[in-house]
Specification:
By secondary structure, the protein is an alpha/beta fold. About 35% of the residues lie in helices and about 25% in strands. The protein has a single domain, classed as 3-Layer(aba) Sandwich (Rossmann fold). Strand 7 (about 145-150) and strand 8 form a beta hairpin.
Length: about 300
Amino acid sequence: MYVPLRNWTSARRQKNELIKKDTKEKQTPPPHTEEIKEGPRELTIDIGGNKYNITSDDDYLEYIRHGFKPEMVKLFKLLANNSETILDIGANIGCTAILFGELSKNVYAFEPSPTTFTFLEKNILKSEIKNIFPLNAGLGAERGESTLTFPPTFRAGGFVSNQTQASVGHTVEKIVIRELDEVVNSLDLQAIDFIKIDVEGFEGHVLRGAKKTLSSHRPVVVLELNHWCLNAFQRTSIPDFFDLLRSIFPILLAVDGSNYMSLHDENDSYSVMYQHIVHMRFPNIVAGFDESRLDQFRSIYEHGFTA
């Protein structure tokens, strides 16, 4: 989730409170009091039950120091386990890619930022997982070049700044953008089971450049829902974004904690829009083509909403 630099400290505190309240995590990390050193540093992070030494130079390590996103790990393990090929689009410093490396035969991890990519490569190498292949490129609706903007304290908040610029107090990097369809063809990928997309509001562009891949491979897709990023960075409203998703995926389930609601149901969709825009609930969407691949998800997650 992107936040302006000057608001990062308070936003991080608010986000931790939301995680505790809204996703009902049983273990909330205590405040960290030791001095944070400047420059690259390393922490041992629990990722899906295994310990890895992760290196970065921003505050993201503090956010995950007591475990990498337990709710997302639960969801990914349920939907992506035993995959042939997983695409991690918006790989950041590599925590999700490392998890996916444990769940599948092959992982292709896309990260557009040249400097963040160096941490991605380093963390993959240290993990000693051999089936993760990092690619230093962004994905979009067409090939080209653009810029990526992020606060130096939070690389995970990097957004494609093709429409909105915020250079003061931020890092701005030139990036290369490719179409996923072209990349899949060039890599000669034969089976893509699962795709994760977390690109700070650029999700629609990624999907438009992936039409052939989605129609031919019919993967399960998990993507972030963030109305701030969609509106501020890509000038896209939540109703317009949902319309785009509905035009592509016959199955669309917005997820909040252990609950889900269908975006193909008019009443459910309205509730998701309200709860997300007003309260930042339902931060993720599970999209798919085959109901049988979501049977286990529906057996564990409950339809409805818990305030």
